Amino acid sequence: MNPLVSALRERRPQTEVRIVDAHAHAGPYSLFFIPDAGPEAMVRVMDRCGVSHAVISSHLAIQLDAAAGNAATAAAVDLAPGRFTGYLTVNPWQDPVGELEKWGGDERFGGIKLHPDLHDYPLTGPRYAPVWEFAQRTGCPVLTHTYDGSAYNDLPMVEEVAAAHPGVVILAGHAGATPLGFELAIEVALRRPGVILEVCGSFNTGADISRMVREVGADRVVYGSDFPFIDLRMSLGRVIFSDLAEHDRAAVLGGTMTRLLRWRSGVG
Questions:
Q1: Ramachandran region, residue 47 (left: φ > 0; alpha: ψ -120 to 50; beta: rest)
Q2: For the chain, what is the radius of gyration of the CA atoms?
Q3: What is the pLDDT of residue 264?
Q4: What are the residue boundaries of the Amidohydrolase-related domain, all occurrences included (predicted)?
Q5: Do 118 and 145 touch, CB atoms closer than 8 A?
């Protein structure tokens, strides 16, 4: 039996695989209540599920205030050493160059987070140029929200950016978010080697994740949850109960994201 399934049925934390959540958040969200949204509560859930690490951006950073939110992200990383890495959120309307200069060399941050839909600015716009330059120069991965049909971050925009910056690692958050989005995300990833599919969301299934791995490889697909916006246990279940081979499941759950975070050791 899959050891992850065995651990779940025995109601104990799994210890077989290093799980890294590639798409998580922290803190309250302004539009609705999220219970236990702080890092301490998140660690308790992670411990219960055997999740070793999560890469987080504060809800404050992605929604209202990038400067205050990036500081909150750094503080959350400090609260649980070794359990969190931060995403540096860049809002194109809120001093992107200043935020990159302030936090780009801070080891608490292992990636950049973009949310074009929330920020009402297209992924292909020139205000993101400092992000692509930084990512090209350092190897820092960039997680962007994607949603099929969005005016700000649909899959053709991801491909346009990936074509213009072939050396940049772009995590397509939610992998397009809808069944048609998954189809398009796979097509983009097949054409653009720098595009990684991140699988959190409300619409995908274990079968969708297995197909992504079959089409583009386990080294191009990463587990994410949107936790605590969405409960990580639901996202974990889709991967744990999928028909992936054990080595592919381990790569999706943590091996691939662990590799993508290693860029930081080479930054001068």
A1: alpha
A2: 17
A3: 87
A4: 20-262
A5: yes
Residue 2 pLDDT greater than 90, yes or no = no
**Tens digit of pLDDT for each residue in 212-263?**
999 999 999 999 999 999 989 999 999 999 999 999 999 999 999 999 999 9
Residue 32: Cβ-neighbour burial (10 angstroms; 0-12, 13-18, 19+): exposed
CA distance 38 to 32: 15
Structure tokens belonging to residue 15? 């210890």
Instruction: Give the contacts of 12 (CB within 8 A, at least 6 positions apart).
Output: none
Phi then psi dihedrals of residue 53, to 5 deg:
-155, 150
Whole-angstrom distance, CA of residue 138 vs CA of residue 148: 29
Tokens in use for 7? Answer: 């651990």
Cβ 127 vs Cβ 99: under 8 Å: no
DSSP the chain: --HHHHHHHTTS---SS-EEEEEEEES--SSS--TT-SHHHHHHHHHHHTEEEEEEEEHHHHHT-HHHHHHHHHHHHHHSTTTEEEEEE--TTS-HHHHHHHHTT-TTEEEEEE-HHHHT--TTSGGGHHHHHHHHHH---EEEE--TT-TTT-HHHHHHHHHH-TTS-EEEEGGGSSHHHHHHHHHHHHH-TTEEEE--SSS--HHHHHHHHHHH-GGGEE----TTTS-HHHHHHHHHTS---HHHHHIIIIIHHHHHGGGGGG--
Structural domains in the chain, sorted by start: 3-266 (3.20.20.140)
Residue recorded with tokens 């992936």: 244
